[in-house]
Amino acid sequence: MELLLIILLGLLYAAGVYMILRRSMVKLLLGIMLLGSGTNILIFLLGGITKGKPPVIDENAKIFQDAFADPIPQALILTAIVISFGLTAFAIVLLKRVYALVNSDDLDDLNTPEEEDI
Amino acid sequence: MLLAVLSGLIISLLIIPFGKLLTTKWSFLLTILPASLFLYFMSYVPAISAGSSFLQHINWIPSLGVDFDFKLDGLSLLFALLITGIGTAIFFYARTYLKGYIFFDRFFGYLCLFMSAMLGVVLSDNILLLFVFWELTSISSFFLIGFNNDNSDSRKSALTALSVTGLGGFFLLAGLILLGNIAGTYTISELIDARELILNHELYPLILGFLFLGAFTKSAQFPFHFWLPGAMKAPTPVSAYLHSATMVKAGIYLLARFSPILGGTDYWNYPLMAVGGFTMLFASIHSLFRIDLKGILAYSTISALGILTFLIGLGTREAIIAASVFILVHALYKATLFLVTGIIDHETGTRDITALGGLRKVLLPVSIAGILAALSSAGLPLTYGFIGKDLIYEATLHTDYQTLGWILNAVAIATNIGLVAAGFMAGIKPFVGTLPKQFENIHLPYKSMWIPPLILAILGLVFGWFPGPVGDFINHATANAVYGSETDMYLKIWHLNIVLILSVATLLAGTLVYFVNKPSPSKLKAIEKLNSIAPQRIFRGYANDIMRFSRWYTDLFHNGYLRSYHLKIILFAELLLAYKLWISGPITLDLEKITTPSFYEIGVIVILIGALYIVVTTPSRLTSVVAMSVIGYCICLIFVFYSAPDLAMTQFTIDTLSTVLFVLVLYKLPSFINHTGKAILYRDGIIALSFGVIISLIALRVWSEPISEEIANFYGENAYILAKGKNVVNVILVDFRGIDTMFETVVLSIAALGVYSLIRLRLKSTEKE
């Protein structure tokens, strides 16, 4: 399974990089999201994956009686997911604004003539 | 002394907040600084002329050998007096000259900065400290020369001056560090004791070469002289200050300062004599063909600097005496001539000597100053210039060289003939003859403009009457400091010998040249061709190449296309990561650690990869968003399988929200347009895939290393005991790392505010919801 996940995260990264090399703003955003997902999987994998042993202590016990999944990567990923949602939500609304103004999804249309003169 | 050096820096800082106040009548406050510094240094004159010197030591960076070591001896004192004394005149003068100018305060800020940098150069007893101030003079003079920053010529001249002197400074630093390493000390007073060690070291010629480059670029010696005439684009007070007494004399100071340490060898004498001798003659001839007053002064300054370099290179007792006197002589008359030129320019609006004449009728005190300075520069008996010229001939006549001595003598005479004529052209020509009609309405400027040059010119005259006391008080100690031992100098008004005959002959010949030589634009053009043997062209070409390179570089890396930035960043990251992977050696896989996936896990991953393919390839925006949500849900399932219920829940919520938002907001957008050609798609595909492969390999490499479970165990054991929570992930987030989570909430709130305001924002009236 680990090998599959490694291939998967490689693919997620590849797809993310490919998408941010495109001209479309929406694709750029999708690419960033893909890179984020890839990173989540990467952290998840490197923390060591364990099946069926969530880091939750039994109701009657005070400490773990058994082995348990590493809670630290999970805490990190949870933070990452939430923050990336903040980014995504903001970017989506921003894209809509840009589209409303320049009537285009093309990043190149954002290069105003003044900037090109520099 | 530290305070004396730093006061200018402090004042220039104070000008930033309070500068605007000084543009009014309070501007006279500025002149207090150089004047009080001048008095401060004057108070040292009796002690220094009695043969003592003053040291001050304050630790700065002792571990690097850089300390605030200051030393005031005869040489430093002469320069300090010139810097502050002429500085006072300049400050007075510039107040009026630049009255009402918009950047008045800025100008004085630069000027204060420059003055303290110069004081730092001449007072430093630590060669690294000297270098710091040396560079500071280059930088502050850059601002002063380029002061008229809306004029492209002016900007270019400033840049040329900075790059030439900066280049020299670079070599100087190299030379100084070599010197310090060999001698084991960076203190100038201690370097003298290491003289034998340095002279016998194999790197001695190299050190000299570096040092000479520094001095020659700063003091505008051939072939680096070309920046100085260009620097005449500066406002006239700046030219007067920089080119009579300070900036360009820094190179001379350097040579004089190191003369007792490094001098007296063939490596020292011949290059200095050759370069100085050539420069003085070359520039003196050049100055005769100039029609711009400032141009004449620029070239005669270069020539004078050549004379000083030459004298220091000669290195005999007489030569050193002559140099120490000539520094003062030149500063007095050159500053006067510059200031007079400034007045003429200010009043008539032209500096063309073919158009000027008869100004004595309207600018009488100015003309007195100009004529006195011209006479001093010509070396008329009873001026201080005469004493200076006398001593120069004395020095060239009394050398150990046989035929070479005569050549040197001839060069000195020829140079001086040229200087006599040039001095007359600049100081007398505009005032004699008939007054052109258009200048009849000119009136005398404010007193603060014509009094400073008049005082300087009169000083040049008075010093000539009493050369004995002046020499005893100021120049004697200077000569001793440069010579390294007692020079037994005594100045007389004149000696009746061959030197006097030569002086008079020079004067007559120079006067003759003045009357015969009529400069005109066509002659100027012809003589300009001589300049092409200087490396000015190489410099220009070099500068152009740098410009071209930076333009090419900017076009390549900053073309304004986001994807091209991404491409470069990713390529660079790939190279770096691949290199790191490569040197970290082969990856060993522990097959025991790998778990076998169940069929539904494989199913999820297959779906995920399929959705990924759709996201990348679909032309429809909606499809890609839906596929994106499929990816999110698949990842959510992976979290479920591998004991991360919290993650699964969060991922599920967030993914749903994102998709809804996407669809709600972006459903109106058209489908993707595909502008890009196949080749670029393939290129990007390859780059993206290789990035993925590299990341996978890194993941494999890291995963194959053992993990420490110490922290995980700490949280596992303490989650309930310390924080009374049974879900460890939650406990970490809200308790152990609670503050992090709080700030995360803040970030999300800010994003939410942003989203809200963006939705409400209406930039165009036609915009719909």
UniProtKB/TrEMBL annotation, chain A:
Highest taxon of source: Bacteria
One Gene Ontology CC term in the entry: plasma membrane
Keyword set, alphabetical order: Cell membrane, Membrane, Transmembrane, Transmembrane helix
InterPro entries from the UniProt entry: CPA3_antiporter_subunitC (IPR050601), NUOK/Mnh_C1-like (IPR039428)
Localization: Cell membrane
Membrane topology, from the record: Multi-pass membrane protein
TM stretches of this protein: 6-21, 28-49, 75-95
Entry keyword Transmembrane helix: yes
Keyword Methyltransferase: no
Pfam family, one: Oxidored_q2
NCBIfam families: PRK09094.1 (NF006573), PRK12659.1 (NF009302)
Family listed: Belongs to the CPA3 antiporters (TC 2.A.63) subunit C family.
UniProt-recorded name of the protein: Na+/H+ antiporter subunit C
Organism: Sphingobacterium alkalisoli
Phylogenetic classification of the source organism: Bacteria, Pseudomonadati, Bacteroidota, Sphingobacteriia, Sphingobacteriales
UniProtKB/TrEMBL annotation, chain B:
NADH-Ubiquinone oxidoreductase (complex I) chain 5 N-terminal domain boundaries: 61-108
Listed transmembrane segments: 6-23, 35-55, 75-94, 101-121, 159-183, 203-228, 268-289, 296-314, 320-341, 362-387, 407-428, 449-466, 493-516, 565-583, 598-615, 622-642, 648-669, 681-703, 741-759
Record-linked InterPro entries: CPA3_Na-H_Antiporter_A, MrpA_C/MbhD, MrpA_C/MbhE, ND/Mrp_TM, Proton_antipo_N
NADH:quinone oxidoreductase/Mrp antiporter transmembrane domain: residues covered: 124-404
Keyword Flavoprotein part of the UniProt annotation: no
Residues in MrpA C-terminal/MbhD domain copies: 606-670
One MF term in the entry's GO annotations: antiporter activity
Pfam families in the cross-refs: MbhD (PF13244), MbhE (PF20501), Proton_antipo_M (PF00361), Proton_antipo_N (PF00662)
Domain MrpA C-terminal/MbhE: from-to ranges: 682-760
Domain of life per record: Bacteria
Main location: membrane
Membrane topology: Multi-pass membrane protein
CC annotations in GO: plasma membrane
GO biological process: monoatomic ion transport
Subcellular location: Cell membrane; Membrane
UniProt signal peptide: none
Keywords: Antiport, Cell membrane, Ion transport, Membrane, Transmembrane, Transmembrane helix, Transport
Identification of the protein by name: Putative monovalent cation/H+ antiporter subunit A
Species in which this protein is naturally found: Sphingobacterium olei
Lineage of origin: Bacteria, Pseudomonadati, Bacteroidota, Sphingobacteriia, Sphingobacteriales
